[in-house]
Amino acid sequence: MTRFAELNLCPELLAKLEALGYKEPTPIQAKAIPLILQGKDLLAEAQTGTGKTAAFALPILQTLQAPQRQDEYHLIRALILVPTRELAIQVADQTLAYAEYLGLRVVAIYGGVRFDNQLRKMKRGADVLVATPGRLLDMLLQKKISLQHLEHLVLDEADRMLDLGFIEEIGKILRFAPSQRQTLLFSATLNSRIDELAEALLNDPQRLSMSTRNSASKQVQHYAYAVDASDKADILCYLIKGAAWQQTLVFTRTRKRADALTDYLNQEGVAARALHGDKIQKERTAALQAFLQNEIRVLVATDVAARGLHIDALPQVVNFDLPNIAEDYVHRVGRTGRAGQKGQAHSLVGPDEKRYLNDICALIGQNIPLRPVPQATKSGLQQATPIASAHPSARAGRRKQGSKSALSKPTSKLRNRTQASKPGAAVPSKSKKSATPTPTQPKAKPVKSRQPTDKGQRASIFDT
C-alpha cells in the first residue's frame, strides 16, 4: 500500500497530513500526485468522495511552496475554477488547511455576495485562487486582479461547468492567462464534450480513470419506487418519519419545487431547509450549517447548489425528482457512500420519469428495478419485491379486484397518524367533485384526510 511519504511530498505537507489524520492516499491521489509533480497535464475521472481535491491541491502546493510577493501582494500562481459557490468554499477550505505550514495564501471568490467585500479579500492577493467563472471574469475585466504569473490551472467538476454554460467565460478567462502553464481537468463524470475541451486546453495529457466511466460508487445501494406524482411529498414524509431518518439530502428538479417541499415537510413536523440558487449566500451557508450540525433533518437542494457539498457519513440521498440528465444522478448519489462509508440512494419515480430511470441505468451500467414503496420501520426499510417480477396485466387485475396499490398502505398509515394527531379536523367528501388531490389526498384511493388548506394548495405543485 502506497503511503504519502512515498509520493515525494515535502516535510511540511507530510506533517500537515499527519495532523489531519490522513493515513494513506486514495487511488486517485496515489496516481495523480506523481504525474502532477512531474508537470504533466492531466485529465482525471474519479467518483465523488475519493479525494479529488487533495489529488490536485497537494502537488500544486508542493510546487509553489515559498510565496512570491510584490510589495506584500501574493501573486496568483494557481487558479482552481469550480462551478458553484459551495464547491469554491469547500475546495478553498481544504486547500488552505493543507497549506498551513507552507505560509501560502488561499482565497475563494464567487458570486452571490458583495463584489467589494470579495475585492477586499484580494487586497493582499493569493498564491492559490479558487473561483467561480462569472465572478473571476468580472474582476479580470475590471483589472482588479491579474493572472500573468499563473503556473497551474485546475478545472474541477468540468462537466458541470459545461452544463451551466460556462464554456464562454472559461475561454475569456484563459485570454488573461499565460499559454505556458500546467492544466488539470478533474471530474466525477466525463463525456465527449469534456474530451473535446481537454483536446483544446491540455497539452499531451495523461489520462486517469479510477472506475468505469460515469459509474456510481459501489458503496451506494440504489432503490427506485413507483409512485404517483401527487403522492411524492406524502411518501417522502412517511419514509423519513417511519424509518427515523435523521440526516437526509433530498434533490428536486427546480427551485420552486425545493421551496414547496421544504414548506410541506416543516408543516408535517420534519425540520427542513432549502438550498438553491435563489438563496443569498448567507442563507445557503446557514442552511448547510444547520444540516451539518443536525439542527434539521432534511436539506432540500437543487443540483447546482448541491454540487460540492461534503458531508461526512451522510446515510441517504433521496431523488424526489429524477434528473433529466443521467450524469446528474451520479453526482447526486455521490454525496453518500463517500470515503469507504456505506450509503443509500432512494428515488421516487413518477409515471413520466421512467424514461429517466432507464437512461440512468444505462449510464451507470446497473439495473435499478422499480419497487413498491417499502414498509418503514425504526430498524429500516422493508423492501418489497420489484414490480418487474410480476406481469403488468396481473398487477392491474389485482387492483381491479380491490386490493391496495403499492402506495396505499404507507400513505394511508401516514394520513391516519396525521388525522389522529389533530382531533376534530374536517374530513373531505369522497365525492368525485372533491378538491384537486394533494399529497394528503391521493388519487389512487380516497382516504380520510384533512380539508385542503393553504398547505395543500402549495403542495399542488407536486402534481406535475
TrEMBL record:
Name of the molecule in the record: DEAD-box ATP-dependent RNA helicase RhpA
Low complexity biased stretches: 420-444
Family label: Belongs to the DEAD box helicase family.
Domain DEAD-box RNA helicase Q positions: 2-30
Compositionally skewed regions (Polar residues) per UniProt: 376-386, 403-419
Organism annotation: Nitrincola tapanii
Region (Disordered): 374-464
GO cellular component: cytosol
SUPFAM superfamilies, A to Z: P-loop containing nucleoside triphosphate hydrolases
Pfam families, per the entry: DEAD, Helicase_C
Helicase ATP-binding domain span: 33-208
Motif Q motif per record, residues: 2-30
Residue ranges occupied by any Helicase C-terminal domain in the UniProt entry: 234-381
SMART domains per UniProt: DEXDc, HELICc
Enzyme Commission number(s) of this protein: 3.6.4.13
BP term (GO), one: response to temperature stimulus
Signal peptide: none
Keywords per UniProt: ATP-binding, Cytoplasm, Helicase, Hydrolase, Nucleotide-binding
Recorded catalytic activity of this chain's protein: ATP + H2O = ADP + phosphate + H(+)
A single GO molecular function term of this UniProt record: hydrolase activity
